[in-house]
Fold:
Amino acid sequence: MIQNILCRIQGVGIYGVISIGIFFAFFAGVLVWAGTRKKSYLKTMGNLPLDDGSQPAPSSKNHPA
Amino acid sequence: MNTNVETFKYDNRIVRAFAMATIVWGVVGMSVGLLAAVQLFFPDANLNLPFITFGRIRPLHTNAVIFAFVGNGMFTGIYYSLQRLCKARMFSDFLSWFNFWGWQLIIVSAALTLPLGFTTSKEYAELEWPIDIAITVVWVAFAVNLFGTLVKRREQHMYVAIWFYIATVVTIAVLHIVNSMEMPWSALKSYSMYAGVQDALVQWWYGHNAVAFFLTTPYLGLMYYFLPKAANRPVFSYRLSIIHFWALIFLYIWAGPHHLLYTALPDWAQSLGMLFSLMLIAPSWGGMLNGLLTLRGAWDKVRQDPMLKFMVVAVTAYGMATLEGPALSIKSVNSLSHYTDWTIAHAHTGALGWNGFLTFSMLYWLFPQLYRTKLWSVKLANYHFWISLLGMMFYIVPIYVAGVTEGLMWKQFTKDGFLQYPNFLETIVQVVPMFRLRALGGTLYILGTLLMAYNLYRTAKSGQFEPETVAQAAPLASHAPASGKIKFHRLLEGKPLFFTVLSIVAILVGGIVEIIPMYLIKENVPTIASVKPYTPLEVMGRDIYIREGCLGCHSQMIRPFRSETERYGEYSKSGEYVYDHPFLWASERKGPDLAREGGRYPDGWHFNHMDDPRSTSPGSIMPRYSWLLTQPLDTNSLPARLKALRKVGVPYPDGYENGPAQKDLAAQASRVVQNLKQGAVTAESDREIIALIAYLQRLGTDIKPAPAPAPATSTFE
Structure:
């Protein structure tokens, strides 16, 4: 008897529905969380790479000024 | 200024060490790729040496580029940026150097073992079990160093780049451990714990996410750090970067099954993989646009600064690859693209464009910083840019053409309903000119990389290396809020442990939902009555098939399309693979599928074909495997192999390996020798070719009506 039995696991289709449900709940949460951040917070965070507490190398520019 | 301010030093030595390793391994990895590419139109370029034959060096190329070039590039960027984003030196100098030397040792081990044929055969996870353990140890050292640095940081907030680094560390650990479960049978060889469908699902859950969490997330972290640094402006939208991060790591982990469309994997899992892959476009493009828009109003800098030029192409290539990836995950598109060179073109848009160009960009920026000087030659860097961009185009465009041509030719029927190109060779001969162009593209790309190496060497010579950079910042305690109330977002991005736990939950949800059904499958796959374990001689032959990397060009999975069943025979069933440790479905066809190879040709044909493929198939691009005709079969290790296979679930009777197995092996080998005699071929029964022929003649015959020429019988059946 040769058959592709994998398709016959009972009720396996519910995994797809659960998966999409989990994702949309998660994604909605992230959107709300990101959307409610204050501008001052976002500005501070965005500027973090620009200040590392060290003195920049005076002549380290790659391109002609 | 805060009176509490502390003075400390960033460690630049470790950054320089990783940067140099990146350049060296980059050139090595790309050159091995070029050698493999040349063999696809000039098979004799292997000089008839097993160690540099396509099947063995293809995994060497992929491992070298992914783990040596990009791996060292990732460490370079992380060790530079993490210290500065945390305003702290790395947690432990010892761990930093343990990470560096451990990683280089792993790379050297890979460079030795893969050409020698020690491979698990699982893509991007080919390294054998002792090296897997070493990877785990070094990765743990890296993780401790990273989290230790986060704990002792002076910066209150964790910038989004660090989020990407954390996701990389934890996810790669989970993926590597789960996919590397294997049963050793010698000091350097093992069998996968999983078999068939389970092995395929775990492997591609790993394989896809190796791309996601080794080639993508750490490099996105680097983009979010180095792009604002070079442009000297903050990222376009930090809000978008938050959404980019969480949506990306949550979605990526689900998409693995898109590597197994139309295989014996359950249909619902395939559809889920496709759907989540499609949704991935949104965060990926959000990230790409965030990167490009950071340069708004600063495009004049892009004209002048080669570093930014490379960065713009890298981010654009990220966008192209992440649009194409979901497109290839659509089942109807995948039915055409799978097994063809289209996948190779897609992978190289990511590797050459995204990872390569971003690495070059970072190195051009870093060297002048580390050596307190300016780039030796902006002009040479611009030459590098244009030569490598041209090389990338010459690589990718012909291979797209090759991929689509292969897919269409395989599916082409005459108006009478017969295959238009029934001989697979016709389809491969057609695309050989594209393979030549691809090698030209690769050569140009390597040439550009060498120009960069020279430019950076001269830059280093012209400056003075700064082993440590002095910096000042207030300790973290002085940032503590006055009130005791901690808000959720402070908890999230201020507490590395809490953040890490959330990241693990985000990546595990997808893994668990997909892996639970895998266990259900295990409970439910019926043993097809006629499917038997491989005989001892076939086990030996299968191991030779793995050693030589035959799966680099030959799949063993016939999809349920008429174009495939007409060409190869009955489509593949999950129950046929229950004794396959590891699975050998493969993902490439430079030669025909072998799932129903058994009985297709006489033994003598296989013998001659292995000795010189062009003697039986004029125009074939397969390398010669003449050493198999002379190398003796290592039957001493048979008991260890069978014992290990029994431990992972293959039902060989107890004690079978201690005598009966050797007798069965000898009997089957002499039958093969008899068959060869009928084909006027004289061979000794104790040579490797005999075992390989026995294995090839077994393939697919368990459910094939016609008996194989060398029927497999043994005492345990």
Q: What stands out?
A: Chain A is about 45% helix and 0% strand. Residues 14-35 of chain A form the longest helix (22 residues). Confidence is low (pLDDT under 50) at residues 1-7 of chain A. The radius of gyration of chain A is 26 Å.
